[in-house]
Automatic annotation (TrEMBL):
The UniProt record lists the keyword Nuclease: no
Name by which UniProt lists this protein: OmpA-like domain-containing protein
InterPro entries linked: OMP_bac, OmpA-like, OmpA-like_sf
Presence of the UniProt keyword Signal in the record: yes
Location of the protein in the cell: Membrane
Residue span, OmpA-like domain: 47-153
GO cellular component, one term: membrane
Length: 153
């Protein structure tokens, strides 16, 4: 009886281990297939980018000049448009919160615009960025307008 039980346990274990020996081939991702085929994946992603740029608002917390994670995501939207439009240009216009002296508001607006510019330069689009004064008129050419704005109360 003990011998039969041992044989039964051995048979069950060997059959369960043989199931582990079945090799599953990994699936190749679409990104790898595209890379092997030499496809322009970035070009495919640009299909969703509009030809005419829509203004982008990069929000800053009240009185702040440092890009938050949400501000970086908004700036990444501008970056995506600039990458998809290699001849495109962007005008960055800073804005303040509307509190304090005129000089303080101008300094805050300029610092915010420079923060967005610095972020985008770090991503490789420096030659196509222009800073505009907070009260400058909208650009007449087709450029991406990035507003570095603060949240108002």
């Amino acid at each position: 009886m003990l011998r039969q039980s041992a044989l039964l346990v051995l048979a069950v274990l060997s059959s369960s281990l043989s199931a582990c020996a079945h090799r599953v081939e990994p699936q190749i991702s679409q990104a790898v297939l595209d890379a092997r085929a030499g496809r322009d994946v970035a070009g495919d992603a640009c299909g969703s980018q509009p030809a005419k740029p829509a203004p982008i608002s990069v929000q800053f917390p009240f009185g702040e000049t440092e890009l938050s994670p949400a501000g970086q995501r908004a700036a990444d939207g501008a970056l995506a448009w600039l990458i998809c439009h290699p001849n495109g240009r962007a005008v960055i216009r800073g804005a303040a919160d509307g509190h304090g002296s005129a000089a303080a508001q101008t300094a805050l607006a300029n610092s915010r615009a420079q923060a967005v510019q610095t972020y985008l330069i770090g991503k490789g689009v420096e030659a196509r960025l222009t800073l505009a004064a907070p009260d400058a008129p909208d650009p007449q050419r087709e450029v991406l307008l990035i507003a570095a704005e603060g949240r108002r109360w």
